[in-house]
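Notes continue from the previous slide.

Worked example: a multi-chain complex. Inputs as given:
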Amino acid sequence: MARLKFLCDTERCIECNACATVCKNEHEVPWGMVRRRVVTINDGEPGEKSVAISCMHCTDAPCVAVCPVSTLYQTDLGIVLHDKDTCIGCGYCYYACPFGAPQFPRSTLFGTRGTMDKCTYCAGGPEENGSEEEFRKYGRNRIAEGKLPICAEVCSTRALLAGDGETIGEIYRERVIARGFGSGAWGWSSAYYPDDRG
Amino acid sequence: MSDEVKIHGRDFTAYRIGGAIAALILGFLLIWQVWELFDDDSLTVPEVHWGAASGEGETDGVEIQSGIIASDVLRARTKLQDERFRSGPSPDAEVPEYVIGGGPRLIESPMGEETGVGFTEAWAQMDGETATMVRGPQRVFGISSLPYAGAALFERPDGRNWRFGMADFVTHLGALAILGFSFLLALILAIRGRVPIAKGRSGKTVKRFGFLERANHWMTAVSFLGLALTGLVIAYGDTVIRPFGEPLLGDLGWLSTWGHVLFFPTFTLGVLFMILKWTWGNLPSRLDIQWLKRGGGFFSDDPDNPPARKFNAGQKLIFWSAVIGGLIMIGTGITLMFPFYWLDLEGMSWVMLIHAGIAVMLIAIFIGHIYIGTVGMQGAIEAMWGGKVDRNWAEEHHELWLAEIEDGTARREGSR
């Protein structure tokens, strides 16, 4: 089976925020929430790097482990999905997430912050694939159509790669060899290789 | 043992049978919990299978094969992101298989847990080529031009530590403490019976708690039970309620989230009033050491218990648990009600962990309090229910307090 992952090549990311924008548009993500962001490190200094981040769809996903109401679940492609009908807005997943991926509509008084939203790897939710209800709650289901997340497919510099982990790893390594440098797969250790933590 | 003992703990046969039954049930639950500790199911495993649909929106029934086709479809699409000279688009190039529509649709179906474990374990294995490109875990914050809270965060490996603290440490420790302590108490009830009023009831009562004290106690108690039960749904619902259906767990979880908050004001009020009313009587004294050394005379039916004023050392421990534990719970609870108002993500993470950790400990401690105040000791409930206790009970457990009030009453009567 393929194991779907995200990889952002920081040498190519130009902080255009197209991934974040197209994601919001494709899924009609509600106001105040964002499924994909671009973070810039050492802004304005030598060694400045930008890197796009969303839910990484972790191995041994910590959010699934801490969810008290079984809202979060994983599929055998590695995609971590959520069920908005059972979510109680406790925010545990946000504390457990190594990438700050879960989003909440409110950060107001009294505990619950509304139903959590996060990147679905463009794979919808538990509703019937392609149904209107699924779209309303989770956005487009591109995986069901055999397509990959739109953030990566729209990326003009092909900095953001999505799809089978082995394949994108190969593409990236070949690229690093061809150009002679690369700063590695950011976040992969925290996301995909939990035993590797130092 | 002196001849004055008229009632023995072992005489409470019905209570002891009840205790034995409870001990049996709790013993099984405890064994189950210990087994849960070591059964290695703390891994997150996939529960849903993606497969290629054949025809009418059904997978062809062969899980592995439909999965292979689904993988092929997605791999073909992944390759489109390769260098352009390889991936096209070029009018002369051949149309790659699957990638521009016409391929099978992919659909989800539930899968067995056994298969899931294999997936997670395989994913966690890093091959040599991947090892050359993976960056180690590190805390990375930058800036983001997006206007969202927390948008500047890239990576915080501590998330996985929080998961360990919450899902593995606090949850299991709490279950062990709660079940273990309950089991112990049930066993004590079965073997030792109740702590009796050894000399039997005298028929005379003395006033122990006023109306306001009792009302406040029960207000705090009901609030605590409400908070504890709603909290337990959130902490253990995944284990205990989920087998009865995920929608039920979702509904109960939602009720608990809001209910938890509703019990907060009365609980806070109760704890604050207790501090005002009872702190003076609960300051530690030299008598407490003696009382603790003799275990409060808990295991003997002899009426000669270590002397105590209005509150003995055991009650003082309960009082300070309620006050210190309660204040921590109130403080962390208020913080959790105002997420990110004065603490950042790491601060909130710690607050949540502390809230959960102290909560399970308090629940275990107060199971002890409930035990000794009801079935564990004859005549104890009357103090908080009607406010008056039997004079012999008072003499056996709080002789210095009894002497004080009788002295006071005598003096008042004498002056009349």
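Summary box: The first strand of chain A starts at residue 4 and ends at 8. Chain A has a mean pLDDT of 93.
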